[in-house]
UniProtKB/TrEMBL annotation:
Key words of the record: DNA-binding, Transcription, Transcription regulation
Organism from which the protein derives: Zhongshania aquimaris
Annotated protein name in UniProt: TetR/AcrR family transcriptional regulator
Record-annotated HTH tetR-type domain positions: 1-60
Residue ranges of DNA binding: 23-42
Domain of life: Bacteria
Keyword hit for Glycoprotein: no
InterPro entries, A to Z: HTH-type_TetR-like_transc_reg (IPR050109), HTH_TetR (IPR001647)
Length: 203
């Protein structure tokens, strides 16, 4: 419990004051643990960072799976509503504390070689597992070549919106983007199905 409290506190610090300003003392204070307890679990700042990165890696995959569960039912026809729901969940996903904290670490790793060395293999593994998870939660897309580019389109667009500083009419603008993206994904899906059926009938 103490370890988890420390990792959650580190996430909070990243979000509230940024990676550069986060010290082990501040993390311990946010976690409500003594300096000794902090040092017992994590003897150095980088040991905390490594643990938080691993923690976020698992947490982000778990949260994505929970958000996308039961949106695309394999025994039912895929509808516009299903696709829009998945885009809305993707937007919710990039607004979760875990995403914000991870992006803070990712941004900091650009100029921090030690942090970058830890982040790079985790990021590669996450991308691999993330795509595999998308295949499992979207069975209608599973065997379509369009899955990966469609997945990238959603993730890149959602991340871009989440990281942008839209200060005016933010909710209305986000809604329009979600609406447009859902329509585009439906078109991509329909075209992919038609193309596959055409290929199968030509054999």
């Amino acid at each position: 419990m103490t370890r988890t409290a420390i990792l959650d506190a580190a996430m909070t610090c990243f979000i509230e004051i940024g990676y550069a300003n986060t010290t082990t003392a501040l993390i311990a204070n946010h976690a409500g643990v003594s300096r000794g307890a902090m040092m017992h679990h994590f003897p150095s700042r980088m040991s905390v960072m490594k643990a938080v990165i691993a923690y976020l890696h698992e947490l982000r995959l778990k949260e994505y799976l929970e958000l996308m569960a039961d949106i695309d039912m394999p025994d039912a026809q895929l509808t516009n509503k299903d696709i829009r729901n998945s885009v809305e969940m993707a937007w919710n996903y990039v607004n979760m504390p875990s995403f914000i904290a991870y992006q803070e670490l990712l941004g900091a790793s650009r100029t921090d070689p030690e942090l970058k060395a830890v982040m790079e293999p985790v990021e590669k593994d996450f991308e691999k597992q993330f795509l595999q998870m998308a295949k499992s939660v979207f069975p209608h897309w599973q065997k379509l070549p369009a899955l990966e580019p469609a997945h990238d389109l959603v993730q890149f667009l959602m991340k871009g919106m989440a990281l942008s500083q839209m200060s005016t009419r933010r909710n209305a603008r986000v809604k329009k983007v979600i609406d447009y993206l859902a329509l585009i994904l439906m078109e991509i899906y329909d075209e992919s199905i038609e193309s596959r059926l055409g290929d199968e009938s030509a054999k």
